[in-house]
Amino acid sequence: MHLNRQLAALSALLIGAVALAGTAWTRDGSRVVSYACPGGEQFTVEYFDAHVRLRNGAGVFALSGQQVSSGEKYSDGYTVFTVSGNRAMLERPGLPESTCSPARGPSL
């Protein structure tokens, strides 16, 4: 009987944690754009007011907006994402720069 109570409590805790975690990934007030690069790399960028959330095979990166004369630039001090017109540039330490375009078709 004691084990059933523990399982019920654990189940309730897990359900609550999943419900709370689901609220952290809402997309209210943002737009998501998928990008494709000539070398085959793909990533998505979720745009917010003053920052973006870039997702690729290496993880999720929160990049803050930077002042530039034209286009948009975001960085966390290591990863730099720049957008100008229909071109996006992704710069990362130790990797070649990637010049990418919005992907055609469904988002990643």
Automatic annotation (TrEMBL):
The organism's place on the tree of life at top rank: Bacteria
Keyword Lipoprotein: yes
Domain C-type lysozyme inhibitor: 35-94
Signal peptide range in chain numbering: 1-21
Keyword Lipoprotein in record: yes
Alphabetized Pfam families for the sequence: MliC
Keywords: Lipoprotein, Membrane, Palmitate, Signal
InterPro entries in the record: MliC, MliC_sf
Designated name of the protein: C-type lysozyme inhibitor domain-containing protein
